Amino acid sequence: MNARLPFNTTDISCALPAIVVPNGIDNVSAGVSGGSFSGTLSNAAYHALGGHISCSGMKALLRSPAHYQAYLEDPDDDGVKPNMGTAAHCAVLEPHSYDDRYTVYEKRRAGAPWETFKELHSGKLILNRAEADNVMGMYHAVMNFRDFPLAKALSLGESEKSIFWTDRETGVKCRLRADSLNPCAILDLKTIDDARPEKVLRQVVRMDYDLQAAMYTEGVREFTGKTLPFVFVFVEDKKPHGVWLYTAGQSVIDNGMRKFRRGLEAVKRLQDTDDWHGYLGAMTTLELPRYAQLADTTGNGANYD
Questions:
Q1: Does residue 11 form part of some domain?
Q2: Quick check: is 54 in a domain?
C-alpha cells in the first residue's frame, strides 16, 4: 500500500448518512440533505483536512492516482503559492484580516535589514511595493465594477464558506470552500492576465474550472436545496485591472458534472483496488496541429540555406 485514502465510503448509508463532523470545525449548521453541513475553519485547516475530497484533490485524481497521492502528501502544494492572487482574494473577500496576514517591504530583499524585517513580521506574507499596489488595484477594480453591484453582492454573501456533503450515488464524502456564497449566486474570484472571453475560455478548459463550477453547484444544492448560478469574477492582475463577470453556462456545468461523476467513480475504484498507478498507456505518436505547421513552399523558389 503506497498511500492511505483520507476517507472511507464503506460505512456510509447513501440514503440518509449521519452528520460526522471532523475535529477543528466550529459553528456547524446542518444542511437540507442528509449528511450535509457547513462550518467555520481557517483556510489552512480546510486544505489540510481529510475525510472529504475537494475539487483540487479530484483534479489531481483525474490526472492519475499517483498525482493524487502527491497531493495528499502536500495538499497546499497545488501550484498556487502565496502571491498576488491569494493576496487579492484576502483583500476582496476577507478585508478585515488583510493587514494581519500581509505586509509590505519597500527595500531590496537582501542583507541584515531584510532578515530583521522577516523576523519582526514572522507569520505574515511579505509583498513588495509593486505587488501590494497591484493587490489594491484589483481590490478597487472589483469594488467599483460598474456593470453590476458586485460590491453589494459580495457584502451580502458569506466569504470562504465551507460546505461538506455525501454524494448520494457513490457515498463519497465531498467538500467545497466557496469564495462567496450569496443568497442568489456562488461567486468565485479569479485573477488572470487577460479577462477577455477568448482568453478566459482557454483558462477555464486548462484549469478544469468547469469541474469546480459543477461540483460547487452540486454541493450548494445539497446544503441549501437551491440550484444557484455559478459566477466567475475575473480580474486582471495588471493595470488597469479589468474586471469581467462570467456566469457558467449549461455546457460548462454539464461538462463539469461529467468530470465530477468520473472523479467520484475514480475515488471508489481507488478504494476498491488500492492501485496508486501513474499515467496508463503513456506512449503516443506526436503530431503537430494544423495551426503549428509551416506551409509547404517546395517548388516555389523558397531557399532555406
A1: no
A2: yes
- Amino acid 79: pLDDT: 41
Domain tally for the chain? 2
Three-state DSSP class for 231? strand
Sign of the dihedral defined by the CA atoms of residues 176, 178, 183, 184, in that order: negative
Please report the pLDDT score of residue 78 as a whole number. 44
> Which parts of the chain sit beneath pLDDT 70?
1-18, 76-82, 298-305
Structural element, H or E, at residue 26: strand 26-30
Beta bridge partners of 22: none
Long-range pairs, 266-270, Cβ under 8 A, ≥24:
266/58, 266/61, 266/62, 266/65, 267/5, 267/7, 267/9, 267/53, 267/58, 267/61, 267/170, 267/172, 268/9, 268/170, 268/172, 270/5, 270/61, 270/65, 270/68
In a domain, 277, yes or no: no
Q: Which domain holds residue 96?
A: 82-144
pLDDT of residue 14: 40
- What is the tens place of the pLDDT at every residue in 268-302? 999 899 999 999 999 999 999 999 999 887 666 55
- For the stretch 96-110, pLDDT in tens is 999 999 999 999 999
Q: Are residues 170 and 211 in the same domain?
A: yes
Residue 23 is predicted with a pLDDT of 77
Q: Looking up cell 457515498, which residue turns up? A: 171
What letters, b where the CB count within 10 A reaches 16 and e where it falls short, cover 179-196?
bbbbeebbbbbbbbebbe
Looking at the domain assignment, is residue 245 inside a domain? Answer: yes
Question: Phi, psi (5° rounding) for residue 191?
Answer: -100, 150
